[in-house]
């Protein structure tokens, strides 16, 4: 007899997720099941899985139960567990609201993650989320084939390596079918690697940046929310700015990041596209 798993599919600027409603933590979610769901040829296809579970019902969320009812149990496409996903928490929030599981007020609502509690603010088209402030902390390098790029390590609750390109080679020419090489002593749990180029001025933003990203556990994705925050922090620092707004273009669309002291707000679309069930 085959089992059926009910799912919802959503995305934030093309960073797509299989969403599993599991309020009481009853689903036996395994790395194999996650990989099967995310398989783009034999499964539903996604960059990762978002399990929607009450904080009190998940061991990684129980410590936040007094502050946030819902815990985002995020898994990468290969079945590994990740600490945080900026686009994921925005799509997670859209699911909560669309299904009547949360009613955000003017101050938004609270969502628990492995990187702590964040505060999404819900709009009709976009969702903004107050993220932890990116911490820029070390210089390093990434390699793509024979090329080596200087970069900066950034902690956004998960690890990032931001590498700026300066026109040669073009950002579009990088071959990211294979994971970039990186310093495993600095990043023992792996790292998301962002490659960036400055863009032309954009109205309403202090800086404009283009980004491609290779996410650990998911390969190249069309967007990465925490990666966008990491890139914005580095771009502002390199421009000599303590705060500002960065318009960030990824292959899947545009995100906006506003950083001001201890505040980092990521804004972009969060879309529910389908519901259904999968036979296992």
In short:
With 280 residues, this protein is mainly beta. The protein has 3 helices and 18 strands.
Distance between the termini: 9 Å
The portion of residues forming beta strands comes to: 35-45%
Mean pLDDT, as a whole number? 95
Number of β-strand runs: 18
Residue share in helix:
10-25%
Low-confidence stretches: none
What is the element string, with H for helices and E for strands? Answer: EEHEEHEEEEEEEEEEHEEEE
- What's the overall geometry? globular
Main sheet properties: 18 strands, mixed
Cα gyration radius (Å): 18 Å
Helix/strand/pairing class, anyone? Answer: mainly beta
Number of helices: 3
Secondary structure blueprint with pairings:
Blueprint: E1 4-12, E2 15-21, H1 31-38, E3 48-54, E4 70-76, H2 86-98, E5 111-113, E6 116-122, E7 126-131, E8 135-144, E9 147-155, E10 159-164, E11 181-182, E12 192-198, E13 207-215, E14 219-221, H3 225-238, E15 243-250, E16 253-260, E17 263-269, E18 271-279
Parallel strand pairs: 2-3, 4-5, 10-12, 13-15
Antiparallel strand pairs: 1-2, 1-18, 3-4, 5-6, 6-7, 7-17, 8-9, 8-11, 9-10, 12-13, 13-14, 15-16, 16-17
